[in-house]
Amino acid sequence: WCQAHHVLAWLAGGATDIDNLVLVCGFHHREFERLGWVVRIHNGVPEWVPPPWLDPHQHPRRNTAHHLPDTALLTTARTAHQSRHQDTGRATAAPEPPDP
User: Fold this and answer.
1) CA 25 from chain center: how many Å?
2) How many angstroms separate the Cα of 94 from the Cα of each of 12, 34, 40, 60, 82?
3) Are 22 and 38 in contact (CB under 8 A)?
4) Nearest 5°: phi and psi at 45?
5) What is the DSSP letter of 16?
6) Distance of CA 51 to the CA centre of its chain
7) pTM above 0.70, yes or no
8) Could you give the count of Cα atoms lying within 13 Å of 29 in the half-sphere of its Cβ?
């Protein structure tokens, strides 16, 4: 139920590729700019910048409503990795995540 939105508009030369697209529901695709929101890509992740009337400092936000937090993803990946290697008799620890 999502639509792809070009971060840099296609008419302004924005590419139709994963680095320039974000998924939004139909309602927000039609309304977010009218309501004063801006979307941008930071380190490959969409950030939503609220309008000044909602957040005077306009701190970017991420929509995490439909996915696990990054720490939960790392824990899940580490557990799956350990389970696979224990099944083969070669228990090894998953690599530590890089420092932020």
Assistant:
1) 15
2) 44, 46, 32, 32, 7
3) no
4) -120, 135
5) S
6) 20
7) no
8) 13
The values of phi and psi at residue 94, to 5°, are -70, 150
Distance CA 86, CA 93 (A): 10
Note whether 2 and 24 are within 8 A (CB). Answer: yes
The pLDDT assigned to 86 comes to: 65
Convert the pLDDT of each residue in 22-73 to its tens digit.
999 999 999 999 999 999 999 888 999 999 999 999 999 988 776 655 555 5
Residue with tokens 């939004």: 24
Question: 57: which 2 tokens?
Answer: 């400092």
Which residues touch 1 (CB under 8 Å, ≥6 apart)?
25, 26
Q: Give 39's strand partners.
A: 48
